[in-house]
């Protein structure tokens, strides 16, 4: 299955995204389809104290290329993890 199919799949249901593991966090790259392209977005999760905590990253950046939007989304999520760590969930 191609990257685009996994990210944006067909049909009416939301595609299942395989997370990327980074420093103990799970990054779900989920660019948002908009009229003029794809907005940079990702969900960052980590199990903390037996509970799954989640943070949604949505940026103002919009790309016309969905692959580029996915790459930037992953990069920005990693940057947030590096800068904030578990403080993302405060």
UniProtKB/TrEMBL annotation:
InterPro entries xrefs: Transcription_activator_HlyU (IPR018772)
Taxonomic superkingdom: Bacteria
Protein name as annotated: Transcriptional activator HlyU
Organism: Aliiruegeria lutimaris
